[in-house]
């Protein structure tokens, strides 16, 4: 028995030795194979198998080929506008190019190219095998102009129908009128911003080409009630002691008069008035104490220089509209704006009411021309807007109309709706300015007077149409017409997208040229009544 034990030990040792040799050979073969595989991949000038960028397969493509393929897809994705819709009442196209949306294609393609090439042999081989079998998608970093996007969203927020109207007030004579406001909607701005950006990210060029991708975003809104009337805040804003106008010469400064304003009743009585929830408007009597000396008493030496002038034409035969224009212009005529002071069209002109003398005239409403109280007021705000631009004043709030107007070119209008949309600007000059408004013989004129600045720029307003939107024809059944008879009740006109520039010149040389606004105007349909 003892003589056989050494032989058994030798066999066991031999088996172990062979196992070690085999394992070592396998390891060497695998290492050799991995090395060759990794070296071959490193020498390849193409992207590894299974790699996608933004869901687009770029396997086995060179850097240039992958870049071209991704750029081609992105161009398709960014070309198509997005339709933003609020029910059946409001739709608008969102042009992605208006927010300067771009993708960082170069970095993403470089990242794809380096997969399986930028680590040691073992990690590279594992990465290549995992990518080949499981795939790998690389997202692209995007960039956009957030200010432009916010401006577009603000524009939409002012145009969707049914907006909440916040409580407001104005002074007329010796009475304070407080409007309770009206319940309505308000745009969920951040939600819409996120929806737009997510929609852009999720776009697929193939689906766009096949018309299988939904390109409509439903606008989300909040249903809101107006804020309660804060009578204490209103009182603090309207109450003032009388102050005479005066000016000093060195340095030259003008100080405008201020009439004293106070409630003619107690605060308790005033609060009892607005406690009546059955009313939508309240009237509080005021006690006015006029200043002893006004700017007009100072004389024309305070405003010797005509800073800007602008005029528009109107149909003088349309008595209702002409009357509305004159009422609003007279409210602005003679107004003095101090340096840094902000002008609010709605505050100065006030609420447009029948009691104030306003009558019905044509306005735009929901794609149609209809009669509306105080129609034509926007010609006053638009004429003033152009005069203010030519005076190089700072615009703080302005929106274009939903449709183009006849009195100023597209891109040069300013719409106003009391309680909803205002036109505001600041006197950004060194000295006070005074407005002269006149409506007569078919011409609306605005002149701005003041003191000449050390540098006075020549201002040019340049609207550029970037897109024309064709109008449609709508046929409306009319049983009062003979069979087949057609009557055009509204002439259509195209819509536009317009970028307006403000150019400053000094001694004939262009000093600056900047974008003033990006405006969108809907097409106005032709409406044809047709007999049965």
Distance between the termini: 121 Å
Q: Can you tell me the residue ranges where pLDDT is under 50 for at least 5 consecutive residues?
A: none
Strand content: 25-35%
If you compute it from the alpha carbons, what radius of gyration comes out, rounded to the nearest whole angstrom? 36 Å
Total number of helices: 13
Task: Classify the helix fraction into a percent range.
Answer: 25-40%
- Apparent shape: elongated
Number of strands: 31
Question: What structural class do you assign from the helix and strand content?
Answer: alpha+beta
Average pLDDT works out at: 87
Strand order of the largest sheet: 8-9-16-15
Major sheet characteristics:
4 strands, antiparallel
Can you tell me about this structure?
With 532 residues, this protein is α+β, with helices and mostly antiparallel strands. It has a domain at 303-530. The protein is built from 13 helices and 31 strands. It has a four-stranded antiparallel beta sheet with strand order 8-9-16-15. The chain is elongated, with a radius of gyration of 36 Å. The relative contact order is 0.09. The model has no long low-confidence stretch (mean pLDDT 87).
Keywords:
532 residues, four-stranded antiparallel beta sheet
Structural topology:
Elements: H1 5-43, E1 51-53, E2 56-57, H2 63-79, E3 82-86, E4 90-94, E5 102-103, H3 105-113, H4 121-134, E6 136-138, E7 142-143, H5 146-159, E8 168-172, E9 175-179, E10 184-187, H6 189-201, H7 205-209, E11 216-218, E12 221-224, H8 231-238, E13 246-249, E14 252-255, E15 260-263, H9 267-274, E16 281-289, H10 295-298, E17 305-313, H11 319-332, E18 336-337, E19 342-344, H12 345-349, E20 360-365, E21 368-373, H13 377-390, E22 394-397, E23 424-426, E24 433-440, E25 443-450, E26 458-469, E27 473-477, E28 486-490, E29 495-506, E30 509-521, E31 526-530
Parallel strand pairs: 1-6, 3-11, 27-31
Antiparallel strand pairs: 1-2, 3-4, 5-7, 8-9, 9-16, 10-12, 13-14, 15-16, 17-25, 18-24, 19-23, 20-21, 22-23, 24-25, 26-29, 28-31, 29-30
């Amino acid at each position: 028995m003892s003589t056989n034990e050494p032989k058994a030990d030798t066999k066991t040792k031999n088996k172990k030795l062979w196992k070690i040799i085999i394992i070592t050979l396998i390891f060497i073969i695998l290492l050799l194979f991995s090395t060759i595989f990794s070296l071959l991949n490193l020498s390849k000038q193409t992207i590894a198998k299974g790699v996608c960028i933004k869901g687009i397969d770029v396997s086995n493509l060179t850097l240039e080929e992958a870049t071209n393929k991704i750029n081609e897809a992105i161009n398709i994705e960014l070309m198509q506008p997005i339709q933003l819709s609020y029910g059946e009442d409001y739709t608008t196209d969102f042009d992605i190019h208006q927010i300067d949306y771009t993708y960082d294609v170069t970095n993403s393609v470089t990242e794809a190219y380096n997969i399986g090439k930028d680590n040691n042999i073992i990690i590279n081989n594992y990465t290549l095998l995992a990518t080949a079998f499981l795939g790998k998608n690389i997202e692209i970093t995007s960039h956009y102009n957030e200010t432009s996007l916010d401006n577009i969203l603000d524009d939409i927020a002012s145009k969707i129908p049914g907006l909440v109207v916040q409580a407001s007030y104005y002074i007329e004579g010796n009475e304070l009128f407080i409007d309770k406001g009206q319940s309505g909607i308000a745009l969920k701005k951040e939600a819409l911003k996120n929806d737009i950006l997510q929609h852009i990210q999720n776009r697929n060029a193939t689906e766009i080409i096949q018309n299988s991708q939904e390109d409509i975003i439903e606008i989300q809104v909040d249903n809101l009630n107006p804020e309660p009337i804060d009578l204490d805040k209103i009182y603090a804003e309207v109450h003032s002691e009388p102050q005479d106008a005066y000016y000093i010469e060195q340095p030259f400064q003008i100080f405008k008069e201020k009439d004293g304003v106070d409630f003619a009743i107690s605060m308790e009585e005033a609060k009892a008035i607005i406690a009546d929830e059955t009313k939508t408007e309240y009237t509080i009597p005021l006690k006015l104490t006029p200043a002893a000396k006004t700017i007009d008493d100072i004389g024309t030496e305070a405003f010797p220089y005509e800073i800007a002038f602008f005029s528009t034409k109107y149909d003088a035969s349309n008595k209702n509209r002409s009357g509305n224009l004159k009422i609003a212009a007279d409210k602005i005529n003679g107004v003095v704006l101090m340096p840094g002071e902000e002008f609010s069209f709605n505050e100065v002109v006030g609420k447009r009411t029948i009691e104030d003398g306003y009558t019905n005239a044509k306005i735009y409403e929901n794609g149609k021309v209809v009669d509306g109280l105080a129609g034509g007021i926007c010609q006053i705000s638009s004429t003033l807007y152009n005069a203010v631009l030519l005076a190089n004043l700072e615009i703080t709030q302005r929106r274009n109309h939903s449709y183009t107007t006849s009195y100023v070119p597209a891109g040069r209008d300013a719409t106003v709706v009391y309680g909803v949309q205002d036109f505001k600007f600041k006197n950004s000059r060194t000295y006070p300015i005074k407005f002269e408004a006149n409506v007569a013989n078919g011409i609306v004129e605005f002149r701005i007077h003041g003191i000449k600045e050390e540098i006075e720029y020549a201002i040019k307003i340049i609207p550029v149409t970037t897109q024309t939107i064709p109008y449609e024809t709508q046929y409306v059944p009319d049983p009062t017409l003979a069979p087949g008879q057609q009557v055009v009740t509204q002439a259509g006109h195209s819509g536009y997208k317009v970028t307006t520039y403000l150019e400053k010149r000094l001694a004939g040389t262009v000093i600056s040229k900047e974008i003033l606004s990006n405006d969108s105007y809907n097409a106005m349909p032709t409406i044809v009544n047709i007999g049965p």
